Amino acid sequence: MLKEECQIADICRHDQVPMCGIDSCGEMRTFIDTCDMHEFNCDTRKDFVQKPVHECWVTCKRGRSFKKPAYGDGCDLENSVI
């Protein structure tokens, strides 16, 4: 999965269309565009996927993240992509 994210990030063309992403731990984050999300996943070994943009606008501002408290503290280790 990480290798695939990095390959997509290498060839992706930025379109500057803001998007929302959520990872397997429930952390929501806004990204500049889908390429930005793939680059972030590659660089940080995360597993964000696209969500409807309106879901992020109510919880976080651009470039910020919001973690649902129900997932717990150890979740950061569990959602790292190997």
From TrEMBL:
Entry superkingdom: Eukaryota
Q: What organism is recorded for this protein?
A: Pieris brassicae
- What is the protein's name according to its record? Kazal-like domain-containing protein
